[in-house]
Give the backbone structure.
Amino acid sequence: MIHKSVNEAKKGTSGCGSSAQQQQHIKQQEQGEMMKQALKKIKNKLFVLSGKGGVGKSSISSNLAVSLAKKGFKTGLMDVDLHGPSIAQMFGIKDMLNMAPGDKQLLAPKQVMDNLTVVTIQALMQDKDQAVIWRGPAKTGMINQFVANVDWGELDFLVIDAPPGTGDEPISVAQAIPDAQAIIVTTPQEVALADIRKSISFCKTVKLKTLGIVENMGSFKCPHCNESIALFNTGGGKATAKQFGLNFLGSIPFNLEVVKSGDSGIPLLTEATDNEFAKNFETIVANITKQL
């Protein structure tokens, strides 16, 4: 089961010879079938990724999930950043996940608001400060179990929050959920854009459909003089989308309230709906959903 896998996913197959290999093959087949059955119940899978860390990808994922849930869509949020999970903090999740009622093989995702459930490795560990020191096979196994051994039920959307880069976790998601559709997050400056061009290449290589690019931390109005300030330049996301023939989903202004809301465990869109951040985010959500 998935609880045990937090410790056992790091271990190699026990036993010896063909018997152990055969048992492992049977387990993989069973898990593969469970994954297929789980994914059949999920209409849309949105894969939020970026080639660079620090662009606000998790805040985009969490607020996207909140926005969809508030619109009445049954939504799940799966945090596959195994080494640096932040979704638990953003939703104030402090206790561990429980087993699904009536099924000892499945975990129940954490209900954080109406229409929204969450799974993160942080909610599977007794010690929240413990480092996850895993290599590829262990990480792939855990991500597969996030699909196969969680009682997601019928969902309109599954939002998947990935770590930065194009390594084990994004590859595992692309293999486990081949019909996932990518949302690439960047900030406007060239150092970030250089990395998301690699994300665009990744999506093409693994044949993931890309819904478009979101530019985060864009220009904002100074609260004192009302002048527009571009901390990280401006327009880079839109220009990159045009260069690669992708949809530009929209730009989100830099907003200090996003930082405060993440630290408090309440994503900004949970309560605030009349600020510039919320208005721009609604445009992005509309640009995503109209493609589905």
